[in-house]
From TrEMBL:
<dbReference type="InterPro" id="IPR001753">
    <property type="entry name" value="Enoyl-CoA_hydra/iso"/>
</dbReference>
<dbReference type="InterPro" id="IPR045002">
    <property type="entry name" value="Ech1-like"/>
</dbReference>
<dbReference type="Pfam" id="PF00378">
    <property type="entry name" value="ECH_1"/>
</dbReference>
<keyword id="KW-0007">Acetylation</keyword>
<keyword id="KW-0413">Isomerase</keyword>
<dbReference type="InterPro" id="IPR014748">
    <property type="entry name" value="Enoyl-CoA_hydra_C"/>
</dbReference>
<dbReference type="GO" id="GO:0006631">
    <property type="term" value="P:fatty acid metabolic process"/>
</dbReference>
<comment type="pathway">
    <text>Lipid metabolism; fatty acid beta-oxidation.</text>
</comment>
<keyword id="KW-0576">Peroxisome</keyword>
<protein>
    <submittedName>
        <fullName>Crotonase core</fullName>
    </submittedName>
</protein>
<dbReference type="InterPro" id="IPR029045">
    <property type="entry name" value="ClpP/crotonase-like_dom_sf"/>
</dbReference>
<dbReference type="GO" id="GO:0051750">
    <property type="term" value="F:delta(3,5)-delta(2,4)-dienoyl-CoA isomerase activity"/>
</dbReference>
<comment type="similarity">
    <text>Belongs to the enoyl-CoA hydratase/isomerase family.</text>
</comment>
<dbReference type="GO" id="GO:0005739">
    <property type="term" value="C:mitochondrion"/>
</dbReference>
<keyword id="KW-0443">Lipid metabolism</keyword>
<dbReference type="GO" id="GO:0005777">
    <property type="term" value="C:peroxisome"/>
</dbReference>
<keyword id="KW-0276">Fatty acid metabolism</keyword>
C-alpha cells in the first residue's frame, strides 16, 4: 500500500497481477465494518484521490472480515453525536447544523459516484443501511450468496438520507419494490437482489465475489481510459436528464474526446488482432 493511501479503517492496495486496478477495502471487521464519522470522511478522500490517479483505471470495493461488507452506520456512535437528542440549541440552529452534517455525509457517498474511474463493489454478509447507500453509488454490484441486504433506517426512526431513496429506485426501476423494502425495513437476500436487478450477479462466497469483481475491473482497465471515463460520465448524466439533454451533452463531450489517439489505436489493434495499449490519463 502506498503511503499516499494510508487512511484509518481502510486498506487500499494495488495488486501487481491486476494492472491499473485499485482495491479499496473497508477495514473495521470487529464492528462489522460499521461506519463512524472518520470513515465516511476518509472514504471520500480515498475516492477523490483515486479519481485523478493516472495509475488507476478501475476500482474494486469490498469489506474485510467474514461477516459483513458493512452493517451500516455505527448507531451507538451516531447516537452520541449526529443523532443525539440532547441539545440546548435553538431548534432552527440545530436544524441548520444537522442539514450541514447530512449534506457533508451525502457528499462523501457521492464521491464514489463522482469518481472518474468505474467502481465494482463486492458485497457479502451483512450489507445493511449505509451499504445500500454506498453500493448504489457504485457502477457494478456483485454479491455473495450469504449477503443479507436491508434498508434499515425506519427501524432507527429516520428516513434514509444518504442516497438510497434517491438512487435505489433508478437502479432497480421498481418503485413498488423499493417502497416495500424501505417502509418495512425487511431484509432480503442475494437471489431477490438479483431478481430485481439490484446486483449484476451472485457468487458462492466472499472470495469468489471479489475474484469476479477483479475480473470485471481488469476488463474495464484494459480499455481506453478516455472511453471508459467518458462512458461513465455520460451514463450518469443521462440517468438524471432527458434523452435530448443526454444527447446534447454527449455531443459536447465527444467533440473533445473523439480527438484522442485511442480511437485509432483501438481500431488498428482490432484489424491487426493484437491487444491495444493506451497512455495514462
Amino acid at each position: 500500500m502506498s503511503d499516499a493511501y494510508k487512511f484509518e479503517y481502510f486498506t487500499v492496495q494495488f495488486p501487481a497481477d491486476h494492472k491499473y486496478v485499485a482495491h479499496v477495502e473497508i477495514n473495521r471487521p470487529g464492528s462489522l465494518n460499521a461506519f463512524i464519522e472518520v470513515m465516511w470522511e476518509n472514504m471520500a478522500r480515498i475516492f477523490n484521490k483515486l479519481s485523478t490517479d493516472p495509475d488507476v483505471r478501475a476500482i474494486v470495493l469490498s469489506g474485510a472480515g467474514a461477516k459483513a461488507f458493512t452493517a451500516g452506520l455505527d448507531v451507538k456512535a451516531a447516537s452520541e453525536g449526529l443523532l443525539s437528542s440532547e441539545t440546548k440549541t435553538d431548534p432552527a440552529r440545530k436544524a441548520a447544523s444537522l442539514r450541514r452534517h447530512i449534506l457533508a455525509f451525502q457528499d462523501c457517498i457521492s464521491a464514489v459516484e463522482r469518481c472518474e474511474k468505474p467502481v465494482v463493489v463486492a458485497m457479502h454478509g451483512y450489507s445493511l443501511g449505509l451499504a445500500i447507500d454506498l453500493s448504489t453509488a457504485t457502477d457494478v454490484r456483485l454479491c455473495a450468496r450469504d449477503t443479507k441486504f436491508g434498508v434499515k433506517e425506519v427501524d432507527i426512526g429516520l428516513a434514509a438520507d444518504i442516497g438510497t431513496l434517491s438512487r435505489l429506485p433508478k437502479v432497480v426501476g421498481n418503485y413498488g419494490w423499493v417502497k416495500e423494502v424501505a417502509l418495512t425495513a425487511r431484509e432480503f437476500g442475494a437471489e431477490e437482489a438479483l431478481r430485481v436487478g439490484f446486483v449484476n450477479a451472485v457468487y458462492d462466497n466472499r472470495e469468489a465475489t471479489i475474484a469476479a469483481a477483479f475480473k470485471i475491473a481488469d476488463l474495464m482497465a484494459s480499455k481506453s481510459p478516455v472511453a471508459v471515463q467518458g462512458t461513465k460520465e455520460i451514463l450518469n448524466y443521462s440517468r438524471d436528464h432527458s434523452v435530448q439533454d443526454g444527447l446534447r451533452y454527449t455531443g459536447v463531450w465527444n467533440s473533445a474526446a473523439l480527438q484522442t489517439q485511442d480511437v485509432s489505436a483501438a481500431l488498428m489493434s482490432g484489424l491487426q488482432k493484437r491487444t491495444p495499449t493506451f497512455e495514462k490519463l
